[in-house]
Amino acid sequence: MTYDPTDGYRFRRRVPEGDDRERHVCDDCGWIHYVNPRVVVGAVCTWEERFLLCRRDIEPRRGFWTIPAGFLEEGESTEAGARREAREEANARLEIDALLGVYSIPRISQVQIMYRARLADPDVEARDETSEVRFFAWDEIPWDDLAFPSVAWALRHWKEVEGRTGFPPFPAAEELT
Questions:
Q1: pLDDT digits (tens, 9 = 90+) for 25-60
Q2: 3-state helix, strand, coil in the chain (%, to 5)
Q3: Domains, in order of start, for the chain
Q4: Full-prediction pTM beyond 0.90?
Q5: What is the phi/psi pair of residue 85, to 5°?
Q6: If DSSP states are collapsed to H, E and C, what string results for 88-132?
Q7: Has residue 61 got a pLDDT over 70?
Q8: Less crowded by CB within 10 Å, the N or C end of the chain?
Q9: What's the rounded Cα separation, in Å, for the pair 174 and 177?
Q10: Rounded CA gap, 6 and 124, in Å?
């Protein structure tokens, strides 16, 4: 980044005073453009002991299976983002049970926040980014055809906590304000 066409300022990579790493800094006013990791949100969704998986119809990993997940939008809670992604990819309505896991993936600069969720009903269908949706029993999950390592991590993590009780109700962020 050397030039911002919206206002004409020039940016240069340098270590700002008081910092310990290079950033994009405006040569004219000193404003620092921070580049931070992307946040991905999603959920391991079940209906009657079967797992909802979506076959990706977009790159990367088109044709591979995933859980409903995607990038968090600005101004959106992580819970709302997980619910939105499930609607966008599988027309699924979620009841979030608990935070399942937070996966830090520095090599691609992502933090993934995954929830444990039940479907409000089994009425799901493939949407714009998905070519197919299916329910799988645990022993039917296509492990070799999962899109990303984090999908396997989340599914296995779900299995680790399966049967644990005592999770408090998980309110929507909107209910917390």
A1: 998 889 999 989 999 999 999 999 999 999 999 999
A2: 20, 35, 40
A3: 1-34 (2.20.70.10), 38-176 (3.90.79.10)
A4: no
A5: -60, -40
A6: HHHCCCEEEEEEEEEEEEHHHCEEEEEEEEEECCCCCCCCCCEEE
A7: yes
A8: C
A9: 6
A10: 43
In the block, residue with structure tokens 């859980």: 67
Token output for 68: 């409903």
Lowest pLDDT segment from 3-7, 8-12, 128-132? 3-7
Distance separating alpha carbons of residues 11 and 172, to the nearest angstrom: 40
- Block residue for tokens 């310990």: 20
Task: Say how far apart CA 85 and CA 42 lie, in whole Å.
Answer: 7
Cβ-based neighbours of 77, under 8 Å, separated by 6 or more = 172, 173, 174
Question: For position 176, what pLDDT does the model report?
Answer: 42
Digit-coded pLDDT (tens) for 94-113? 999 999 999 999 999 999 99
- If 0-12 CB within 10 Å is exposed, 13-18 middle and 19+ buried, where does residue 154 land? buried
Q: Residue 163: left if φ>0, alpha if ψ -120 to 50, beta else—which one?
A: left
Q: Which amino acid is at 21?
A: R
